[in-house]
Amino acid sequence: MKFKTQFVILLFSLLFLFYPGDSYYIKLFFFNRDLFANTKKNINLPSGSFPYSINPNFIPQITAEGSYVIDSDSFTPIFQKQQSRQFLPASTTKIITALVAFDYYRLDSMLTVERVIDEGQSMGLVKNEKITFENLLYGLLVHSGNDAAYVIADNYPGGEKAFITAMNHKSKLIKMRNSVFKNPAGLDSPGQYTTPFDLALAARQILINKTLAKIVSTKSITVSDVDFKYFHSLNNVNKLLGEIQGIGGLKTGYTLDAGENLVTFYKKNGHDYLIVILKSLDRFEDTKRIVEWINTNVGYINI
Fold it and tell me: What topology is assigned to 90-302 in CATH?
Protein backbone atom coordinates (compact mmCIF):
# COMPACT_ATOMS: atom_id res chain seq x y z
CA MET A 1 0.00 0.00 0.00
CA LYS A 2 2.81 2.36 0.91
CA PHE A 3 4.51 1.62 -2.43
CA LYS A 4 1.32 2.42 -4.35
CA THR A 5 0.92 5.71 -2.50
CA GLN A 6 4.51 6.71 -3.29
CA PHE A 7 4.02 5.75 -6.93
CA VAL A 8 0.86 7.88 -7.24
CA ILE A 9 2.63 10.87 -5.66
CA LEU A 10 5.57 10.44 -8.03
CA LEU A 11 3.25 10.13 -11.03
CA PHE A 12 1.34 13.31 -10.25
CA SER A 13 4.58 15.15 -9.53
CA LEU A 14 5.91 14.22 -12.95
CA LEU A 15 2.63 15.19 -14.63
CA PHE A 16 2.78 18.60 -12.97
CA LEU A 17 6.45 19.07 -13.86
CA PHE A 18 6.03 18.16 -17.51
CA TYR A 19 2.56 19.50 -18.20
CA PRO A 20 3.03 21.70 -21.32
CA GLY A 21 0.76 24.48 -20.13
CA ASP A 22 2.51 25.22 -16.82
CA SER A 23 5.94 23.70 -16.69
CA TYR A 24 8.97 25.92 -17.08
CA TYR A 25 11.03 22.91 -18.07
CA ILE A 26 8.74 21.67 -20.80
CA LYS A 27 8.69 25.16 -22.31
CA LEU A 28 12.46 25.42 -22.04
CA PHE A 29 13.25 22.10 -23.67
CA PHE A 30 10.29 21.15 -25.84
CA PHE A 31 8.53 24.31 -26.98
CA ASN A 32 7.13 23.49 -30.43
CA ARG A 33 9.59 20.63 -30.75
CA ASP A 34 6.91 18.42 -32.29
CA LEU A 35 6.40 20.92 -35.08
CA PHE A 36 10.09 21.12 -35.90
CA ALA A 37 10.42 17.35 -35.75
CA ASN A 38 7.52 16.86 -38.17
CA THR A 39 9.31 15.97 -41.40
CA LYS A 40 9.48 13.05 -43.80
CA LYS A 41 13.16 13.69 -44.42
CA ASN A 42 15.89 11.85 -42.54
CA ILE A 43 17.22 14.07 -39.78
CA ASN A 44 19.37 13.66 -36.70
CA LEU A 45 16.98 13.09 -33.82
CA PRO A 46 17.74 14.57 -30.40
CA SER A 47 20.50 12.66 -28.63
CA GLY A 48 19.58 13.84 -25.14
CA SER A 49 21.71 16.99 -25.14
CA PHE A 50 19.59 20.12 -24.78
CA PRO A 51 20.47 23.83 -24.65
CA TYR A 52 19.78 26.12 -21.72
CA SER A 53 20.48 29.75 -20.92
CA ILE A 54 23.43 30.14 -18.55
CA ASN A 55 22.15 33.55 -17.48
CA PRO A 56 18.38 33.84 -18.20
CA ASN A 57 18.50 37.57 -17.46
CA PHE A 58 21.02 38.18 -20.23
CA ILE A 59 19.35 38.49 -23.63
CA PRO A 60 20.79 39.84 -26.89
CA GLN A 61 19.98 43.49 -27.54
CA ILE A 62 18.91 43.74 -31.17
CA THR A 63 17.10 46.28 -33.34
CA ALA A 64 15.09 43.62 -35.17
CA GLU A 65 11.37 43.67 -34.40
CA GLY A 66 11.11 39.92 -34.91
CA SER A 67 13.54 37.08 -34.22
CA TYR A 68 13.59 33.34 -33.68
CA VAL A 69 16.70 31.32 -32.84
CA ILE A 70 16.73 27.54 -32.50
CA ASP A 71 19.13 24.75 -31.70
CA SER A 72 18.59 22.69 -34.86
CA ASP A 73 19.57 19.30 -33.45
CA SER A 74 17.06 19.31 -30.59
CA PHE A 75 14.56 21.61 -32.32
CA THR A 76 14.66 23.82 -29.23
CA PRO A 77 14.09 27.59 -29.33
CA ILE A 78 16.76 29.50 -27.44
CA PHE A 79 15.68 33.08 -28.22
CA GLN A 80 12.34 34.52 -29.31
CA LYS A 81 11.07 37.99 -30.10
CA GLN A 82 7.61 38.34 -31.64
CA GLN A 83 8.20 35.01 -33.34
CA SER A 84 4.56 34.71 -34.46
CA ARG A 85 4.08 38.26 -35.70
CA GLN A 86 3.54 38.71 -39.43
CA PHE A 87 6.28 40.55 -41.33
CA LEU A 88 7.05 41.27 -44.98
CA PRO A 89 9.46 38.51 -46.08
CA ALA A 90 11.32 40.40 -48.85
CA SER A 91 13.87 38.08 -50.47
CA THR A 92 13.69 35.45 -47.74
CA THR A 93 10.75 34.39 -49.93
CA LYS A 94 13.36 32.84 -52.23
CA ILE A 95 13.82 30.05 -49.68
CA ILE A 96 10.36 28.79 -50.59
CA THR A 97 10.98 29.52 -54.28
CA ALA A 98 14.05 27.28 -54.18
CA LEU A 99 12.24 24.46 -52.35
CA VAL A 100 9.31 24.44 -54.79
CA ALA A 101 11.56 24.62 -57.84
CA PHE A 102 13.81 21.83 -56.57
CA ASP A 103 10.78 19.57 -56.29
CA TYR A 104 10.11 19.96 -60.02
CA TYR A 105 13.27 20.79 -61.99
CA ARG A 106 16.41 18.72 -62.45
CA LEU A 107 19.69 20.53 -61.90
CA ASP A 108 20.50 20.20 -65.62
CA SER A 109 17.04 21.37 -66.76
CA MET A 110 17.42 24.17 -69.32
CA LEU A 111 15.23 27.21 -68.72
CA THR A 112 14.61 30.13 -71.07
CA VAL A 113 14.55 33.77 -69.99
CA GLU A 114 11.15 34.86 -71.27
CA ARG A 115 11.22 38.30 -69.68
CA VAL A 116 13.78 40.40 -67.85
CA ILE A 117 12.89 41.65 -64.38
CA ASP A 118 15.04 44.63 -63.47
CA GLU A 119 13.32 45.60 -60.23
CA GLY A 120 15.62 45.24 -57.24
CA GLN A 121 18.58 42.86 -57.16
CA SER A 122 19.42 41.18 -60.46
CA MET A 123 21.93 38.57 -61.68
CA GLY A 124 21.90 40.21 -65.12
CA LEU A 125 19.97 37.70 -67.21
CA VAL A 126 19.32 38.50 -70.88
CA LYS A 127 16.03 37.91 -72.70
CA ASN A 128 15.99 34.57 -74.58
CA GLU A 129 19.08 33.42 -72.70
CA LYS A 130 19.06 29.70 -71.97
CA ILE A 131 20.49 28.68 -68.61
CA THR A 132 20.43 25.60 -66.40
CA PHE A 133 18.29 25.40 -63.30
CA GLU A 134 21.42 24.81 -61.19
CA ASN A 135 22.96 28.10 -62.33
CA LEU A 136 19.68 29.89 -61.69
CA LEU A 137 19.72 28.52 -58.13
CA TYR A 138 23.08 30.22 -57.58
CA GLY A 139 21.64 33.45 -58.94
CA LEU A 140 18.59 33.05 -56.72
CA LEU A 141 20.19 32.06 -53.41
CA VAL A 142 23.70 33.54 -53.61
CA HIS A 143 23.09 36.82 -55.45
CA SER A 144 19.37 37.05 -54.56
CA GLY A 145 18.47 37.77 -58.17
CA ASN A 146 14.82 38.69 -58.66
CA ASP A 147 15.24 37.94 -62.36
CA ALA A 148 16.29 34.37 -61.52
CA ALA A 149 13.15 33.92 -59.38
CA TYR A 150 10.86 34.97 -62.21
CA VAL A 151 12.60 32.79 -64.81
CA ILE A 152 12.10 29.79 -62.52
CA ALA A 153 8.41 30.69 -62.07
CA ASP A 154 7.79 31.46 -65.75
CA ASN A 155 9.14 28.07 -66.88
CA TYR A 156 7.05 26.14 -64.36
CA PRO A 157 4.00 24.29 -65.76
CA GLY A 158 1.19 26.86 -65.73
CA GLY A 159 3.64 29.75 -65.36
CA GLU A 160 3.99 32.24 -62.53
CA LYS A 161 0.42 31.85 -61.25
CA ALA A 162 0.74 28.08 -60.87
CA PHE A 163 4.16 28.49 -59.29
CA ILE A 164 2.81 30.85 -56.62
CA THR A 165 0.05 28.35 -55.87
CA ALA A 166 2.76 25.70 -55.45
CA MET A 167 4.69 28.03 -53.12
CA ASN A 168 1.74 28.42 -50.80
CA HIS A 169 1.01 24.71 -50.93
CA LYS A 170 4.63 23.94 -50.04
CA SER A 171 4.61 26.39 -47.15
CA LYS A 172 1.55 24.74 -45.64
CA LEU A 173 3.05 21.30 -46.22
CA ILE A 174 6.03 22.17 -44.01
CA LYS A 175 3.70 23.67 -41.37
CA MET A 176 4.25 27.37 -42.17
CA ARG A 177 0.76 28.19 -40.97
CA ASN A 178 1.20 31.97 -40.85
CA SER A 179 2.74 32.67 -44.25
CA VAL A 180 1.31 33.74 -47.60
CA PHE A 181 3.36 34.38 -50.74
CA LYS A 182 2.27 36.50 -53.70
CA ASN A 183 5.33 36.44 -55.97
CA PRO A 184 8.49 34.32 -56.32
CA ALA A 185 11.02 37.06 -55.57
CA GLY A 186 9.64 38.58 -52.39
CA LEU A 187 8.79 41.98 -53.84
CA ASP A 188 6.42 43.79 -51.49
CA SER A 189 2.85 42.83 -52.30
CA PRO A 190 -0.46 43.28 -50.42
CA GLY A 191 -1.33 40.19 -48.43
CA GLN A 192 2.17 38.72 -48.49
CA TYR A 193 3.67 37.91 -45.10
CA THR A 194 5.60 35.41 -42.98
CA THR A 195 6.78 35.04 -39.39
CA PRO A 196 10.18 34.39 -37.78
CA PHE A 197 8.93 30.98 -36.64
CA ASP A 198 7.76 30.01 -40.14
CA LEU A 199 11.03 31.07 -41.74
CA ALA A 200 12.92 28.84 -39.32
CA LEU A 201 10.85 25.92 -40.60
CA ALA A 202 11.61 26.81 -44.23
CA ALA A 203 15.31 27.31 -43.54
CA ARG A 204 15.55 23.89 -41.93
CA GLN A 205 14.23 22.36 -45.15
CA ILE A 206 17.01 24.10 -47.09
CA LEU A 207 19.63 22.59 -44.78
CA ILE A 208 18.16 19.10 -45.12
CA ASN A 209 18.73 19.39 -48.88
CA LYS A 210 22.50 18.94 -49.37
CA THR A 211 22.53 20.65 -52.77
CA LEU A 212 20.69 23.73 -51.56
CA ALA A 213 22.73 23.82 -48.34
CA LYS A 214 25.90 23.91 -50.44
CA ILE A 215 24.59 26.70 -52.64
CA VAL A 216 23.56 29.00 -49.77
CA SER A 217 27.04 28.65 -48.27
CA THR A 218 28.75 29.83 -51.49
CA LYS A 219 30.61 33.13 -51.09
CA SER A 220 30.97 33.93 -54.80
CA ILE A 221 30.77 32.15 -58.13
CA THR A 222 30.60 32.87 -61.86
CA VAL A 223 27.98 31.03 -63.93
CA SER A 224 27.10 31.12 -67.62
CA ASP A 225 24.32 30.31 -69.99
CA VAL A 226 24.37 26.94 -71.81
CA ASP A 227 26.13 28.44 -74.86
CA PHE A 228 28.77 30.33 -72.85
CA LYS A 229 27.70 33.64 -74.38
CA TYR A 230 26.71 35.33 -71.13
CA PHE A 231 28.63 35.12 -67.86
CA HIS A 232 27.25 36.23 -64.51
CA SER A 233 29.49 37.05 -61.55
CA LEU A 234 27.55 36.35 -58.39
CA ASN A 235 28.45 37.49 -54.88
CA ASN A 236 26.66 36.48 -51.71
CA VAL A 237 24.70 39.36 -50.22
CA ASN A 238 25.37 38.02 -46.72
CA LYS A 239 28.58 39.80 -45.77
CA LEU A 240 28.95 37.68 -42.60
CA LEU A 241 29.73 34.63 -44.76
CA GLY A 242 33.49 34.26 -44.60
CA GLU A 243 33.75 36.98 -41.93
CA ILE A 244 32.53 35.00 -38.92
CA GLN A 245 33.66 31.41 -38.45
CA GLY A 246 30.78 28.98 -38.30
CA ILE A 247 28.33 30.94 -40.43
CA GLY A 248 27.19 28.88 -43.41
CA GLY A 249 25.03 31.50 -45.08
CA LEU A 250 21.37 31.04 -45.86
CA LYS A 251 19.27 34.01 -47.09
CA THR A 252 19.06 37.77 -46.96
CA GLY A 253 16.10 40.03 -47.68
CA TYR A 254 15.46 43.74 -47.92
CA THR A 255 12.88 46.22 -49.11
CA LEU A 256 12.12 49.68 -47.78
CA ASP A 257 8.89 48.50 -46.15
CA ALA A 258 10.20 45.11 -44.96
CA GLY A 259 13.37 46.48 -43.47
CA GLU A 260 16.48 44.31 -43.23
CA ASN A 261 15.87 40.55 -43.00
CA LEU A 262 18.38 37.76 -42.56
CA VAL A 263 18.17 34.01 -42.00
CA THR A 264 21.48 32.51 -40.89
CA PHE A 265 22.89 29.03 -40.38
CA TYR A 266 25.53 28.93 -37.62
CA LYS A 267 27.69 26.07 -36.30
CA LYS A 268 29.53 26.12 -32.98
CA ASN A 269 31.21 23.27 -31.09
CA GLY A 270 29.24 20.59 -32.88
CA HIS A 271 25.89 22.34 -32.46
CA ASP A 272 23.82 23.82 -35.32
CA TYR A 273 21.68 26.94 -35.01
CA LEU A 274 19.20 28.80 -37.17
CA ILE A 275 18.95 32.55 -36.60
CA VAL A 276 16.01 34.49 -38.05
CA ILE A 277 16.08 38.30 -38.04
CA LEU A 278 13.16 40.33 -39.44
CA LYS A 279 12.58 44.07 -39.82
CA SER A 280 15.96 45.05 -38.49
CA LEU A 281 17.80 48.35 -38.69
CA ASP A 282 21.08 46.43 -39.03
CA ARG A 283 20.61 42.71 -39.74
CA PHE A 284 24.31 41.91 -39.74
CA GLU A 285 25.02 43.61 -36.42
CA ASP A 286 21.95 41.98 -34.88
CA THR A 287 23.11 38.57 -36.08
CA LYS A 288 26.60 39.20 -34.70
CA ARG A 289 25.12 39.99 -31.30
CA ILE A 290 23.08 36.80 -31.30
CA VAL A 291 26.14 34.76 -32.32
CA GLU A 292 28.13 36.32 -29.46
CA TRP A 293 25.23 35.60 -27.09
CA ILE A 294 25.13 31.96 -28.21
CA ASN A 295 28.89 31.66 -27.68
CA THR A 296 28.78 33.02 -24.15
CA ASN A 297 25.35 32.22 -22.79
CA VAL A 298 24.11 28.92 -24.24
CA GLY A 299 25.13 25.75 -22.43
CA TYR A 300 24.06 22.13 -22.79
CA ILE A 301 22.82 19.48 -20.40
CA ASN A 302 22.03 15.81 -20.87
CA ILE A 303 18.56 14.65 -19.86
Answer: Beta-lactamase (3.40.710)
